[in-house]
């Protein structure tokens, strides 16, 4: 059984799907702790209700990004996790933090990376008249939203879509996508070697599709 630490900043709907999948046995792992950089978020309540440790490390209480990341790293290391799962964690992480967990940390991002790293992904897809939008799970490397891609989910963009309607549809696919990838991690089927992601020892040149 793999040990998972999940980092969040907000509502935690992706976290909930991971907690549920672990509880059902669909993921061969256990969420041992959930850490939020913001206090009073719903995700922390979800963690408590599922019996996981729920911690807040409030980034506003730290003078520098380095100081916050160092505190975060220490708390995560205390749990000796096999994997660190970023699920709506909205802080940019320092390279030394990322490198400490290299190959053990994944993120879910609401766009079809490499398109639209950063914020406002759905509006940018609409503005570009894209035919599809979606979400991507990738290994985290020091380049923001730039680590090797693992798996994507996609939806068709409708002419009537707003950023909000699109976000809702993409989020629903995220809830399928993330448990699937985390289960593959927990089965030791995904690896990061020399900045290349592998699935079952085969390099992932094109992201796997949900
Ligand atoms: C999700 O859409 C996730 O892809 C996004 O935040 C949302 C969190 O929702 N993550 C990022 O934008 C990371 N850059 P949730 O708290 O309900 O899981």
Protein model, in words:
- This protein is α/β, with parallel strands linked by helices and 210 residues long.
- The protein has a single domain (2-209), classed as Rossmann fold.
- The chain contains six helices and eleven strands.
- It has an eight-stranded mixed β-sheet, with helices on one face. Strands 8-9-10 form a three-stranded antiparallel β-sheet, with no helix packed on it.
- It starts with a strand and ends with a strand.
- The mean pLDDT is 98.
- Glycinamide ribonucleotide is lined by residues 8, 10-15, 87-88, 108-110, 135, 171, 174.
Distance between the termini: 24 Å
| Rg from Cα | 16 Å
- Oligomerization state: single chain
Helix content: 25-40%
Question: What is the strand content?
Answer: 25-35%
How many DSSP helices? 6
**What general form does the structure show?**
globular
Number of DSSP strands? 11
Q: Any idea how many domains?
A: 1
What is the assigned CATH homologous superfamily?
Answer: Formyl transferase, N-terminal domain
Average pLDDT level: 98
Q: What is the structure about, briefly put?
A:
34% of the residues lie in helices and 27% in strands. It has helices at 13-24, 42-49, 65-78, 95-100, 121-127, 163-186, and strands at residues 2-8, 29-36, 53-56, 83-86, 105-109, 132-139, 149-156, 190-193, 196-199, 202-203, 208-209.
